[in-house]
Specification:
Strand content: 5-15%
Catalytic activity: Hydrolysis of (1->4)-beta-linkages between N-acetylmuramic acid and N-acetyl-D-glucosamine residues in a peptidoglycan and between N-acetyl-D-glucosamine residues in chitodextrins
Order of helices and strands: EHEEHEHEHEEEEHHHHH
CATH class: Alpha Beta
InterPro entries: GH, Glyco_hydro_25, Glyco_hydro_25_AS, Glyco_hydro_fam25_subgr
Organism: Paenibacillus rhizophilus
Helix content: 25-40%
Strand order of the largest sheet: 1-2-4-5-6-7-8-9
Number of strands: 9
Shape: elongated
Protein name: Lysozyme
CATH superfamily: Glycosidases
Oligomer: single chain
Family: Belongs to the glycosyl hydrolase 25 family.
CATH architecture: Alpha-Beta Barrel
Distance between the termini: 47 Å
Length: 306
Amino acid sequence: MKARNSKNAQGIDISHHNGNVNWAKVKADGISFAFLKASEGQTYKDDTFADHVINAREAGILVGAYHFVRAVSEDEAKAEAANFNDAIQAAGGIDGLDLPPVMDYENNPSRLSKERISAVAAAFLSEIERLTGVRPIVYTGNFFAANFGAPIGKYPLWIARYSTVAPSNTTAWSRWDFWQYSDGQSGGLRSNGGRRVDGVSGFPDLNEYDGTLEEMKKRFTQTKETVDKMAERDIDKVSAWAEEAWAEATANGYFDGTRPGAPITREETAAVINRIRTNFLRLIAGNVADIKALERRLSEIEKEDK
């Protein structure tokens, strides 16, 4: 994965362990975003979360919420997502946050297999996205990240590696969106050469976004609005820009003509690809030099299979 960049936005993450925070001083010290602990497991909620949300945003800091996962099954993961959502709602709802909700999944005391870890993660992530309407972020450690399968890679990554060495590529990810580069005592340094942050006692975790503050705002702050607009689309109507291509693909038998605006599944994609592949091989088998003849032959093949 890539190294840090001096132009990147800087942030911290905070929980009740950090005590009182003077967010105005935090902002003045060059911090532009903060992830705040909201909940853990199926019942615990951080009692400092709501106040931190209000005070950090008043200081002009972008805020997000995270949940520490303890689930060992899909059902437990969904219950934990509900607890997370309850904590978010109690603090003003998802619209009161600037950054997506975060699943913090970083250890495996029950010794689950990689497949089970991915299944638990997928259940939590899909459920919190359903509840909030916002695609969540995955937080995990540099070594633990290797437990997640490729499908989890569709979610943005916030990775912990307390080092100046960039995080490692994994099956799920080859880039980071946020890098927790220090726990305040070890790892990388801030641009001022230290690890302290004004307004926070002790040693706050230090984070960096892969981009500028404006780029982060553009990417994340309209996430829910975008999801809502997408949900309003009539999947039975084809978009004007795709009418010709949709008509041709339907006429040639690659789609059945229904639900042009619906998301395509991997199964449907496989069916279309296999059909194209079969037709292409049949076309080549009867190959002739004349392009028009090739086009006529392909049309004949497609009509034969309809």
